[in-house]
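Researcher: I'd like a structural prediction for the single chain below. Treat it as a standalone chain; there are no partners to consider.
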Amino acid sequence: MTDADLMNPRDNVTPQLVIGLAVMAAGVLMTLDIAGIVHARDYLRYWPVVLVVIGALNLASGPARRGASVGFVQMAIGIWFLLISTRVVPHNAWLLFWPMALMFAGAMLILHTFRRGSEPIDSRDTVQMTGIFGGGNRASNANPFRGGELVAMMGGGRIDLRMATIPPGGQAVVDILCVMGGFEVLVPDTWIVDDRVAAIFGGNTNETRPRADASATLVVRGFLLFGGCNVKN
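Model: Treating it as a single chain, here is the predicted structure.
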């Protein structure tokens, strides 16, 4: 631990720490339940509090860590689940989850379309793919490569950018929106990947190993809902 960490203890309170403490607490409760000391069920029903705390941490991190919007959604989902598990709202409210998820996904698609519409780019220098209940493969050898847009809903695909070129010191942006889908993106080792993807009940990984002299930057930004994205060389 560095001196900076000691001076800023809040930086050490991460979602990983919260999850670790929650898992330990669950283990302790189960042990006490087996010993007949407490009824674990009376306490485990408050598990959504963990999601609320994680959302609060992300919300407090602010735009600098790109966690504000994700934190708000996590808190909202956590509070909703907490109201159900404590029977404040009817138990059959679980049935509303998928309709609400679909409405949220539709809203994200609309916002995504409007945002991209305000950023016109020559299609010859970009890669585009939309997978709705399906998918496919795309490749680009654009020079210069300026970015692209990948949208998947219960679908996905593989994007090969290893032959594309971003000028040294330049930057390209790829927007990704996945709802119950996923993408695999292959990039050359001369690019540095700036991962700005936010995930709710999904995951994104950056497995790239850029060369020491890499100077071009690929910004990957977007949103994953029950989806995934893997960027690698």
